[in-house]
Write a structure and sequence with these properties.
With 167 residues, the chain is of the alpha/beta class. It contains 7 helices and 7 strands, in the order αββαβαβαβαβααβ. A 7-stranded mixed beta sheet has the order 1-2-3-4-5-6-7. A hairpin with a 5-residue loop joins strand 1 and strand 2. The longest helix has 10 residues. The radius of gyration is 16 Å and the shape is globular. The termini are far apart.
Amino acid sequence: DVRRAIGAGTHHHADGDLVPVAEGNGYGLGNARLAREAASLGLTRLAVGTVFEAADLVGRYDGDLLVLTPFEPSDRVAAPVWDALASGPNGDRVVRTISSREAWDSVAAGPGPARVVLEALTSMGRFGLTADELALLLADDATLVALAQDRVRLQGLALHLPLAQPS
């Protein structure tokens, strides 16, 4: 069932809207089909796993695409795809997840505007900025200038929470 697959992984947008997740093969249904279903439900954002999935859907889905895999400028395979998306006609609809200072600095150095969410490190320990790194980043003069000059548009904070709580 397509609607059940859309609900299998979800995020919440700041406005309270549901943000469905379509990644991999779309839970067997295909990401394009899930994107069409999300659009038919009136949802304006869709989260995808990778920049490659965003590139595949950006011309077929009119809403925003949040890429869950963090942007890393040193990734020789993904970086050209990010660059192509950013310079393309729909680049303003793609939101990058940023989980390192290097990634932030790379995006902030660009002409922008780049839309981003900052990923905080949680007990999952996968990736993300520590609380101290987040505080330093957000207090940095260069960060404030990048935000003021609209080179970066901070869309929110992402947390990858564990599935089960420790007892």
